[in-house]
Design a protein that fits this description.
heterodimer; A: mainly alpha; globular; B: 330 residues; 29% helix; 29% strand
C-alpha cells in the first residue's frame, strides 16, 4: 500500500495517478463537509477540494507521507465561503432531536438525550466563533485530526492549536454549565 | 459526560455520499488530469517498431515537414553562437516594452493551442499513434471586478498517424468556466497582480525567492524553479519588467540552454530557453518572441531514448500561445 505522498509524487509526471488520492479521501471529506454545511455544499466542496489539490499538487511536500491534513486544509478554506449554510446547518441541529440508533445501548441513549437538550447551546457558541477557532474545534471533534494534523491543515503552530482547543473547550463547558472538575478528571484519567 | 462527547453526537448520522456523485466528481478530476497541456502522453509500452514507423512518417513530411518536428540528430538543438546575444537584446527590449493596454470593457485573451503525440499498443501486435489537439482561451477582464472566463475546447484527434485508436479515448467536452479573480478551481488564479507586484526585480533577490518558494518541489530544485517561472509566464499576466527579470534568472539555472530561432506549433519563431530533465528523458523548452519577450509557445522534446520509447529528437508536446486584447468574451 503506497503512502499518500507516493501517489502525489507519481502524479507530477503522470497526472491521472492523482485519482488514487480521491479514492482514498473523497468520502471522508464529503462527510465532514456535509456535517458542517449540508449535503449540497458538501457535494461542491468535495469536488473542488480535489480539483484544487490537483492544481497545487506540485506544492505538496514530498517528505510528508500523509495527505489528509492537506486535503482537510483545502476543504476548510472552501467551507469558509459557505458561512450561511453552516449557520443554517447549526439551526437545523438545534431544532431537531437527535435520532435514535437501532439497537442503541443505554449509555449512548444517555449521551443522545443530553446532547439534544444542549445542542442549541452548543450551536450558539460555535456559530459565534471565528473561522479558525471553529475549524480547530471541529477538525478535532468531527474530523478526528490530531493536533499536529490540525496545525498542518490550518497552517498554524501546534502550540496555538493546543491553546485554542483548551480555551474553546473551557468556553463550551461554561456555556453548558458543566463542572470544570470533570475536565480535570478527564485529563488525568 | 463532557463537552466533546456531546459535540460528537451532533451530526453523527451524516450520510455517506451517493455513489453516482462520487463517480461524477472522479470523472471530472480525471478529465482535468488527462487534459494537462504541453505534457507528453507517450505510453510506456510504445514499442520501438511503432516509434520507428512514426518517425518515418514524420520524416516523410506527413505532418508538417521534418524540420518542424525533428530538432536535430541528438535531440539537442544546435546552440547558436548568437543565442546568448539575442536573448540579451530581447531582455533589453522586454524591459522597455509597454504591455498591451486593456480597457475596462475589454479583455486580455491568452489563447493556448496545444498538440501532442499520443500512442500505444494493445499487446497483441496492434498499435496506434495519433496527434491530439486542444485549444484553451483565457479571458482576463480589464475591469478587475468583472469575471474571468476560461473556455476549454474539446480534445480532438487531429490526425491518426497509423493504427486504430481505441474508441474509449476520453475526449473532453467543450467547457466554459467563469469566476472572479480566475478562481476557476476554488482558488484565485495565481499569480495575482498583488503577488506579481511583490516579486523582486533584482536578479539575485528574485532567484533566491524563486528557489525558496519551490523548495522540495518537483523532480529537482532546478526543474522546479524553471517550472515555477514557466507557470507564471504561461498565464500571459507577467508585466514586462518582471518578464525581463525572469529571463535573467532563467539564464542562471544550471542546465539551461538558450537557442535562437526555434519554431512553435503555429510556425512562429522565437528564442528558446530549454532544460533537459534527466528524470523523464525529456527536454522542456519555453519559446519567447524576440520583439516583445512574450511566451509564444512551449515544446517537449525527447532527448534520451528510453526502452520502448520515442526516438531521440521527437517532439512529443507542442503549444502556441497568442496574447491579444479583445472586446468580448464568450
Amino acid at each position: 500500500m503506497n503512502d499518500d505522498n507516493e501517489i502525489v509524487i507519481r502524479s507530477w509526471e503522470h497526472p491521472t495517478a492523482f485519482a488514487a488520492l480521491f479514492d482514498r479521501y473523497a468520502t471522508t471529506i464529503y462527510r465532514y463537509a456535509a456535517r458542517r454545511a449540508g449535503t449540497t455544499v458538501a457535494d461542491d466542496v468535495t469536488a473542488e477540494t480535489f480539483l484544487v489539490a490537483f492544481e497545487r499538487r506540485r506544492a505538496f511536500d514530498p517528505e510528508v507521507p500523509n495527505a489528509r491534513p492537506w486535503l482537510f486544509g483545502i476543504a476548510s478554506h472552501l467551507l469558509s465561503r459557505h458561512a450561511r449554510q453552516q449557520a443554517r446547518q447549526w439551526r437545523a441541529y438545534a431544532r431537531a432531536p437527535l435520532p435514535e440508533a437501532a439497537g442503541e445501548h443505554e449509555d449512548r441513549t444517555v449521551a443522545r438525550l443530553d446532547a439534544s437538550a444542549r445542542t442549541a447551546e452548543l450551536a450558539k457558541v460555535i456559530t459565534d466563533l471565528d473561522d479558525v477557532d471553529r475549524d480547530v474545534l471541529l477538525l478535532h471533534a468531527w474530523g478526528d485530526l490530531s493536533y499536529d494534523e490540525i496545525a498542518t491543515a490550518l497552517e498554524i503552530p501546534i502550540g496555538t492549536v493546543r491553546s485554542k482547543l483548551h480555551r474553546l473547550r473551557a468556553r463550551l463547558r461554561e456555556q453548558l454549565d458543566l463542572p470544570t472538575r470533570e475536565l480535570l478528571e478527564e485529563n488525568h484519567g | 459526560m463532557d463537552e466533546l462527547t456531546l459535540l460528537r453526537e451532533i451530526g453523527a448520522d451524516t450520510q455517506e455520499p451517493d455513489d453516482l456523485s462520487l463517480r461524477r466528481h472522479r470523472s471530472t478530476l480525471l478529465r482535468q488530469a488527462g487534459a494537462e497541456t504541453a505534457r507528453p502522453r507517450r505510453r510506456a509500452f510504445l514499442r520501438v517498431g511503432v516509434a520507428a514507423a512514426t518517425v518515418a512518417l514524420l520524416a516523410g513530411g506527413v505532418i508538417v515537414g521534418e524540420t518542424f518536428w525533428r530538432s536535430g540528430e541528438s535531440g539537442r538543438p544546435a546552440a547558436s553562437a548568437n543565442a546568448a546575444a539575442v536573448l540579451e537584446r530581447a531582455t533589453k527590449v522586454t524591459q522597455e516594452q509597454a504591455d498591451p493596454v486593456v480597457g475596462p470593457d475589454q479583455y486580455l485573451k491568452v489563447s493556448t493551442k496545444s498538440r501532442y503525440l499520443d500512442g500505444g499498443d494493445f499487446g497483441d501486435g496492434r498499435s496506434f499513434a495519433t496527434l491530439v489537439d486542444r485549444t484553451s482561451d483565457l479571458y482576463v477582464p480589464g475591469d478587475r471586478n468583472q469575471q474571468w472566463v476560461l473556455a476549454h475546447g474539446p480534445e480532438v484527434v487531429s490526425k491518426v498517424l497509423f493504427g486504430e485508436p481505441p474508441a474509449s479515448q476520453p475526449l473532453d467536452d467543450d467547457e466554459i468556466r467563469r469566476a472572479h479573480d480566475g478562481a476557476f478551481y476554488g482558488a484565485p488564479m495565481s499569480p495575482t497582480a498583488e503577488f506579481l507586484a511583490s516579486l523582486p526585480r533584482d536578479t539575485d533577490e528574485l532567484r533566491a525567492r524563486v528557489y525558496a518558494d519551490t523548495k522540495r518541489q518537483g523532480p529537482s530544485p532546478d526543474s522546479a524553479a524553471l517550472a515555477y517561472l514557466a507557470d507564471m509566464l504561461r498565464t500571459g499576466l507577467v508585466p514586462a519588467d518582471l518578464r525581463a527579470a525572469f529571463f535573467e534568472v532563467m539564464k542562471t539555472v544550471p542546465g539551461v540552454e538558450v537557442t535562437d530561432d526555434t519554431a512553435v506549433l503555429d510556425g512562429r519563431r522565437g528564442i528558446a530557453i530549454g532544460r533537459a530533465e534527466p528524470v523523464n528523458g525529456g527536454r522542456k523548452e519555453l519559446v519567447f518572441d524576440k520583439a516583445t519577450g512574450l511566451l509564444i509557445g512551449e515544446r517537449e522534446v525527447v532527448v534520451e531514448e528510453l526502452p520502448d520509447g520515442l526516438p531521440v529528437g521527437t517532439v512529443a508536446g507542442f503549444t502556441a500561445v497568442t496574447t491579444t486584447v479583445v472586446d468580448e468574451a464568450p
